[in-house]
Amino acid sequence: MYIVQVASECAPVIKAGGLGDVVYGLSRELEGQGHCVEIILPKYDCMRYDQVWGMHDAYRDLWVPWNGGAIHTSVYCGWVHGRLCFFIEPHSAENFFNRGHYYGGLDDHMRFAFFSKAALEFLLKSNKRPDIIHCHDWQTGMLPAMLYEMYSHHGMNSQRVCYTVHNFKHQGVAGADVLWATGLNNDAYYYQYDRLQDNFNPTAINFMKAGIVYANYTNTVSPHHAWEARYSDISCGLGHTLEVHNKKFGGILNGVDYEVWNPETDKHIPHNYGATSFDKKAKNKAALRERLLLRDVDRPIVAYIGRLDDQKGVHLVHHAIYYAIANNAQFVLLGSATASHIGSWFWHEKQNLNDNPDCHLELGFNEELSHLIYAGADIMVVPSNYEPCGLTQILGLRYGTVPVVRGVGGLVNTVFDRDHDKDHAPEKRNGYVFHQTDNHALESALNRAIGLWHDYPKEFEQLALQGMEYDYSWSTPGEQYLGVYDHIRC
Predict the structure, then answer these.
(1) Is the Cβ–Cβ distance between 83 and 27 less than 8 Å?
(2) How far apart are CA 315 and CA 455, in angstroms?
(3) pLDDT score at 446
(4) Distance (Å, rounded) from C-alpha 210 to C-alpha 1?
């Protein structure tokens, strides 16, 4: 099967979040199963060019119809850790991808509408006819609409689209200027509720809604999050659209790259270990304490790794710090704030706790340190308000670090409460789950985890080992995506 991924990110060359990891990891898995995969990306000025091998011209003079004229565009080709990638570079006064950042422009809707248009134009003019075009998030939501309404009449009528929503919070809401720029000129036609019109703003179109309406299949990144999107407000206004198109909507859990995240081979930790050599995890705990100047005491280390923002339940992260310290545990945090007021809040806490030998707050992100924290911590807390999939808990399980999570999104699909899960036998349970968003709910789960570590250390170790047995690699998701591709090709 010939598959083209179209996305705004692909790790490690372009990465702002988990989207980049998914595009790379899924592409590698599909290639490993014998399929031809290519990736189309914007050519940002700030991307990691050192991660691209053999960059060269693929299509020098691509003229992309735009705003009644055409934009001269170059397409470059290179390999990103073995993945064949094409990079779209427009030469125009708008300077779409030479901004020094990936996202955050006031004209992001125009930037990514152009990217989607250019991707289709490149496929058309270079005579590439993939079986599947796999689009990701709001940035590529307009591509299925343009494919169906325009390019299917110019020799691309057999291509099928899988559209993956990674985060419903960001949908790409814009005005009619996008329609005119892309050539979808019929406002009355597209400004209909069953097409592109935003569900709550009749004067706007919605990129993500366009993707859902026009794609042959839409999924989000965990089965439980798919359920939440249909039956709760987590879809941020798109619930009715998902209900209308429910027969072509589902959830597929993201995978993790176990070649990068594997305690048996991880080059970022001082002592490699596995399920049969679990005692070596304690040496990484000692190394983590030494690096972060924590005292060497008989206590568990509770950790948080991730962004500091409202999605991640930042109020519960804050409470977990002081609760752990007050209940015979140590706490390590690695994360960067996405809003200035949250950054100021945690900077104040860092100053307040700076001399505490049982706590270290690292404000920022350090890839190497994150590996050591996964390897050295005993408990990983993930108290998200919502979590489409979540990687932190999956990585924690891989490293034998027991997760304490809130029961939302992909966290429900990956963590099974040691004491209360009724769907898994005791030997298949792997962590602790709480459901409310208040401090008491977090305390109830965290107290059980810390208590088990202190009072029943062998049982705690067994729980950690049970977590390590789970396989959340890309193997199963890859098979599920191939199932979707085969289904929509019929």
Answers:
(1) yes
(2) 28
(3) 98
(4) 26
What is the longest distance spanned by two Cα atoms in the chain?
Answer: 72
Q: What is the mean pLDDT of the chain?
A: 97
Query: What is the tens place of the pLDDT at every residue in 399-456?
Result: 999 999 999 999 999 999 999 999 999 999 999 999 999 999 999 999 999 999 999 9
C-beta of residue 330 within 8 angstroms of C-beta of residue 299? yes
Distance of alpha carbon 163 from alpha carbon 136, whole angstroms: 6
- SS3 (DSSP) at 47: coil
Sign of CA dihedral 322, 324, 326, 332: negative
- Residue 490: pLDDT band (50, 70, 90) is confident
- Dihedral pair phi/psi, residue 289, rounded to 5°: -60, -40
CA neighbor of 240 nearest in space, from 220, 216, 212: 212
Q: Give dist(CA 273, CA 280) in Å, integer.
A: 6
- 347-353 long-range contacts, Cβ below 8 Å, gap at least 24? 349/318, 349/321, 353/321
Confidence of residue 17 (pLDDT cuts 50, 70, 90): confident
Looking at residue 282, its pLDDT comes to 98
Q: Which residues make beta-bridge pairs with 432?
A: 404
Token pair listed for 463: 């729980």
Classify burial at 468, counting beta carbons within 10 Å of its beta carbon; exposed 0-12, middle 13-18, buried 19 or more.
middle
Is the pTM value of this prediction over 0.85?
yes
List the one residue out of 62, 183, 161, 168 whose CA is nearest residue 113.
183
Q: Are 75 and 90 in contact (CB under 8 A)?
A: no
Single-letter code of the amino acid located at 364: G
Look at residue 286 and give its three-state secondary structure: helix
**C-alpha span between 24 and 83 (Å, rounded):** 8
Helices 142-149 and 207-214: crossing angle in degrees, nearest 10, is 50
Residue labelled with tokens 């590529």: 140
Domains with residue ranges and CATH for the chain: 2-255+475-489 (3.40.50.2000), 275-468 (3.40.50.2000)
Query: What are phi and psi for residue 329, nearest 5 degrees?
Result: -140, 165
